[in-house]
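tmp note - Glycosyl transferase group 1
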Amino acid sequence: MKLPPVHHHTGLEASGGATRVARLLLEGLGRRGVETCLSFELAEEADGAAMQPEEFGARLPEGTVAHVHCTGDWPALLGSIPTGTKVVVTLHDCELFTGGCPYPLNCPMREDGCADPCPRNFPDAEGLRKRKLAEVRRLEPALVAPSRWLARLARTHLLRPVRVIPNGIPWPTGLRTKNDARRALGIHPAARVALFAAHGGMNAAYKSGDTWQDIWERLKKALPDLVCFAVGGDREERRDDFILWPYVDRAKLALLMTASDALLYPTRADNHSLVVLEAMAAGLPVVAYGVGGVPEQIVDRLTGMLVPPGDRDRFVDTALSVLSSRSLVRQLGREAFLSGGRKFTAERMVVDYARLYAGL
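out:
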């Protein structure tokens, strides 16, 4: 099928979830001969090219699909796009329909508007929400959410249809052996290894980074041979067998996931996490709170373990049950790898978006 040119736009050039999805679509569409480009509002390098939100619409060639992933200023970016342009918006969080919250946790947000005053002190939260909604009404974009959970929220607040296209990542054809990965990282073959991973590390509010050390200490008391890596912060440090690593590249993270026995993911809010998909692709069981779109990725007790949101005692007990059983680690990890390979590949995601572009 003949597809129109597609211009992807995201906020940060740094490799966040939205940017990685945009890059994967760019690569997949390019292999199909589709003309594509990608713009950013904040370039990774000091001399890198950047595009301000209000400039976006003026730089769109005629006949191009504008595919927006995220922005630091939704009203300015959407307002720059001429009426009648073919627009796709992928919702990577809730910010398009809130007064500023990526996720309105513990917020009395109503279906018809934001709380006043805003409990998180976003200035003019309700006015901002209304300006976003007005631009969505004007442009009538095709809205996409990677999870059914976010799609339901978006339909309620934006009053428009929302298509569900789950995220996907490149999926390996087979699993690396745990011993090889541990040898490469200098980890003892008999050790039990837990992993926390999130952008921001222990400062990651939505990922409960402030609870990581407490969870680790409670697990360590029950499993004296447990080693834990906490990845994604801004420093490198070792606290006994609790090892802090800053951001690592994707190859290093995949190696660490292969070497680990469980990804501990006490997220407070999530859409369709790429970290969970990366763990599944490495055959790594995930223990997570069952929030947002996470239950659409993990089948409880089959491909991972889900815990009632916020129940830290239950989280520790569940993590302990996994880390204590090497057979359960292997069973959950293998099922996660096979299940994810059927549902969450980058190729499947590209095909779904290509169909969407063709039908605009």
